Amino acid sequence: MEAIRLQRALKKDGEIVLTGLPYKKGQFVEMILMIEPLAAKKRHRLTARQLIHSDLVGLWENRKDIEDSAAYARRLREQAQHRQR
User: In the chain, where are the structural domains located?
Assistant: First the structure.
């Protein structure tokens, strides 16, 4: 079954209005509604300056098992892309 994900804030209590869906009259659809927790919207994002001064930059600097951190990161990305799901 094809899925379309829409996220909307309710404008009126107990009412959802969906328009512009790519379906025709007479087609059957199934709707599953899930409430998104309010806390999920609050994500802390770092600015470039904060990132540079964070502990993330230089994280692998003192690792003895990693000689070339760029090559190591590239290898991890390639492994993740070809991982069996």
Answer: 43-81
